[in-house]
Amino acid sequence: MELTAVHEHVWVIRGAVNMGLVRTQGDGLVAVDTGLDKQAGKTLEKAAKEIGLPLRAIVNTHAHADHFGGNAYLLSRTPVTVYAPEGEAAVIRRPMFEPEYLWQGASPLPQLQNKFLLAQASPVHVEYTPGVPFEVDGTTFLPVALPGHAAAQCGILVHDVCFAADAYFDPPVVDKHGVPYMVDYLATCRSADSLRSVQAAWFVPGHGEPARRPDAVIDYLKQRHEQAFQTVLAACRHPRSLDELLADVCRARNLAPANPGAYVLLRTPIAAYVTAAVGQGRMEIIMDGGKLQFLTIEK
């Protein structure tokens, strides 16, 4: 466990998924996200004991399994209040929604029902609204709207620290995945850009290193997204189905999803690029022999 203080009242538990602990005026702690699973919950519990204060609440930034997977364990250990964004809370309460929507709404494959995509269910006691501050144990938390990676994702601004969720990723994380996961390409870019105007001493991404300013990292993320978007447009100069397009992108960017989970996590952002291109009038939809295809409109 690597516990890093970024403010006298804020700590980051750094790992594959960063988790935060915030000291409240009532001398309690609020967790910002709880990691992937029971083990992450135990790590967070250990960090709270090291600080020497009780856990009062959990604030989730969005409803992906790797950000609320520790909720259930922590709730089994102590009666905490769980806060989550409107529009994300339903998935935290019923986590099967995540593998279902990744499998186009159908009953998901068994291979998609693992801890990386299917966390244990957790209650959400309070649904918060972007831009509307809420108070926990005497301390004010400001939700910052950061949709794109998830439909209703929020960052959390508290004690001059911005927990940016998955609005951006460090370059090694971007390079590892090739095409970073998101559900809305244009919203992802807008949200990343919006962080430039947030006044905070520290920015903490969900994956990567805390930084004083994330501007260069945001530039890199947007550049890589734009490259992938252009790859999609180029591949669709001839009619392509989504699966054909995914294979084209994999060849162009040297990607090789090794299992159904990796496949759907790559297919979703590629579908998001297609949606953006169609919405901008840069791509048309073609139905041919029961096949849904996409064709770039040359200008």
UniProtKB/TrEMBL annotation:
Span of domain Metallo-beta-lactamase: 16-207
InterPro entries, per database record: Metallo-B-lactamas, NDM-1-like, RibonucZ/Hydroxyglut_hydro
Residue runs in coiled coils: none
SUPFAM superfamilies tied to this protein: Metallo-hydrolase/oxidoreductase
Protein name, per record: Glyoxylase-like metal-dependent hydrolase (Beta-lactamase superfamily II)
